[in-house]
User: What shape does this take?
Amino acid sequence: MEKITLKIEGTPVAQPRHRRAQSGHFYIPSNHPIHKWKELIRLISQSEVNESTDGYVSLSLEFILPRPKSIPESQLYSKRKPDLDNLIKAVLDALNGVVYEDDRQVYHIEAHKIYEDKINTPGLKIKLSIKD
Assistant: This one.
């Protein structure tokens, strides 16, 4: 079993809903920050993973969000937006074709979102386990 740990620096961005154009086609605006966030995840993943696997993949995701001034230091977990499922979707999409051939190979996901503190700056920690 291969294990890989990645750290992505920056504020996590959730996968947005697609918009519908008058023509009926769906899109995400090209200036949306999700595009840069996914590209950053891809670049860092490519530097650690030689080629995509066709094996089974387990993911552990820790999203570290900026702490709003209204949230006390004693509060670790976030129940505010962005939604955890949309954060996860963005990561699954970004790793598609880089770490694994298709996200259907992911058999286990463990994820949580916390606020930054003195040790953790905003970003994403990914722990991958790959079984052939």
Remarks:
- The longest helix spans residues 34-48.
- The chain has a mean pLDDT of 95.
